[in-house]
Amino acid sequence: xxxLQSTARDISVVIVASGEGRxxxxxxxxxxxxxxxxKARNISVEVLVVLDSPSQESxxxxxxxxxxxxxxxxxxxxxxxxxxxxxxxxxxGRYLAFxxxxxxxxxxxxxxxFQLAEADAKSVLVLHPELSLYFGPQLILESSIxxxxxxxxxxxxxxxxxxxxxxxxxxxxxxxxxxxxxxVQAPGQADWYWNCEVLANGATHRIVPGTVHFxxxxxxxxxxxxxxxxxxxxxxxxxxxxGALIKESQQSFPESDVRGDRLDGVRKYAATQNGDSAQRGxxxxxxxxxxxxxxxxxxxxxxxxxxxxxxxxxSATRTYLASRQHQLPGNWFIDEWRRMHEVDPDLxxxxxxxxxxxxxxxPRSRLANLYSELYQAIGSSPTHIYLLPWLNKGGAELEAIQxxxxxxxxxxxxxxxxxxxxxxxxxxxxxxxxxxRVVDFGNRLTxxxxxxxxxxxxxxxxxxxxxxxxxxxxAVGYEVFANNGATLALHAKLFATxxxxxxxxxxxLGGYSVTHLPVCIDSLSxxxxxxxxxxxxxxxxxxxxxxxxxxxxxxxxxxxxxxxVAGNGVLNVLWASRMDVEKRVDVLLKIAAALTQAPIHFHVxxxxxxxxxxxxxxxxxxxxxxxxxxxxxxxxxxxxxxxFDVFLYTSERDGLPNVLLEATAAGLPVIAPDVGGIxxxxxxxxxxxxxxxxxxxxxxxxxKALVNDYGIAAPKLESARALIEARHSxxxxxxxxxxxxxxxxxxx
Length: 748
Hints:
Layout: E1 11-17, H1 23-39, E2 45-52, H2 56-65, E3 71-75, H3 80-90, E4 95-100, H4 109-119, E5 125-135, E6 140-143, E7 168-170, H5 171-176, H6 189-200, E8 204-216, H7 239-242, H8 273-300, H9 304-325, H10 331-339, H11 351-356, E9 358-360, H12 368-378, E10 384-388, H13 395-409, E11 416-420, E12 437-440, H14 441-444, H15 450-464, E13 468-471, H16 475-488, E14 493-497, E15 502-503, E16 509-510, H17 512-515, H18 517-520, E17 526-529, H19 532-542, E18 549-551, E19 571-576, H20 585-594, E20 600-605, H21 615-623, E21 627-631, E22 646-648, H22 658-665, E23 670-673, E24 688-690, H23 696-708, H24 714-727, H25 730-738
Parallel strand pairs: 1-2, 1-4, 2-3, 5-8, 6-9, 10-11, 10-13, 11-12, 13-14, 14-17, 17-18, 19-20, 19-22, 20-21, 22-23, 23-24
Antiparallel strand pairs: 4-7, 5-6, 15-16
Helix pairs in contact: 1-4, 8-9, 12-15, 15-16, 20-23
């Protein structure tokens, strides 16, 4: 397209268009109207159009109307941020104003913004309209706020962007702070990121009183407050470098709505008595709602799903009530809305429109102070961040500790952070090397919704710039990976460890391997698991690339080996595990009940943890004459293994259970079912393998065989010992991790 040479102007307006077609005509008309209003006040304006990967309809429209523009250029960025940067390069104005088609300027926007900028020329300002009316399938009126307003912290941008992309600032500011190129497919994030960066560089976002922008929405409110703001790290959230620019809010989640400069006046026909009654009711109910909120948190805190549901319902209710309670702005807004009908016939303040108008307060976040607190708790420059739900007694937690210990031994001292994400006390903290920093994320965030936790953790992980982020069964961590893994993977290497499926009560497969791994696996550098069987199952089920997985056999613990017994007298059988449904305590009951006449005694260690077994089963166990319940135990090493002759395992599903490694290391022959990856440790050579967890008869026959001739265990014990030493030693474990690219990185 041709261009017209222009002399320096006061304002350059950059319109970015792509596939709007003739709808761009309405945007151009609104600019021409605002430019004429400014010209009448001796303010010169040039109009530049950047067509970014335009549709044929858009291209044809601007070819017909290029005489109404100072310059029209076509680019093939498919990126609004880069297109705006091209507009900056073309501009000659002292100030720049951006408009994305098919949105609209109000008539006084350019003149009012110019006059405010000139009146405060010593400040570095980014100006925004006082109001934004989103129109289309819905009508939503939003207010804006000054970034230096009392009670507002810029850290609240962690969750919400209170400013539209229709910004006005000096050309120098846009030249020195270009918009970022898009790295993830999410509209508006470039604007959010730019707003953050100019704040970190000392600019102030300021609203222009008495102005409104009109933003067309096609299928719902997809403007920034509804987005996940995950566009890469921003210096605004690096508290060490931008801390001086951050003003912490004294009330991180105010009950009253902060709307910036108060809107002037109220139209008499809009301020109905019902609206006044709603406001009076809100003032009366507010203290009651606050007490109710605190009570609800106390009651539902032990039940996270119920707590999150209550929080989400309360938040939605509060937003709805706020949208119905605010009074409409004064005559100027209604008059401009009506006049815009000449520019865009879809706009007009009909009675129906006014009745259906949703008014939203400035979006506020209660995450600002929490972010600051957790940012400091994590510390500076971590190399590895491990995400766990908690550190309770369990195989997954033990394996996570082994990974952290290995990383710690690789010269990463004081650079490893373990973040626990569930609101539950951790019982195994003492097992973590003292050099590793543990951050209790979950217990600090009681009362936050799951979405808020994901937003907060995502921003922390992005800003901390750890080279490795490794998730071990953290629900919040998996949500972060699923929602924002592509963004995180641009700045860190992501890993996850999966152990097996969950089996739901209705027969379906569940667990993170089913619900989250298929969504996030392409963002992960590698998926760890402890059995070849599980990799084969996942590849067969989902069509994953097998090279995305690494089977890492974890080390067996160092446990004093028991001396083999002669096998005379009573055969003492050890069963130690969680007494949960999937561990098939009911099968243990059947085995013991079938052998009450044999010289066999069962010793049971454990307690219910996740999915407690039926109380009737426990009652029957206690009644058996050949079984003793010893209760919970503090790790396998606390069990006096020298008193027992064989280890019995009855789980219906598993990866490669740590307890079998522990029993084998202790010198106990193992009887276990052929489920999950157990065959990779216990087979015909190394133990006694039962065809399945339901094989009560097979279990009983193996136990009887050991009573008759305990010597049959000797060659199996020797083969098991050799396998443990070769494959499950600590040096072997560390070497397996060293072979995984990017997991143990060289120090910078």
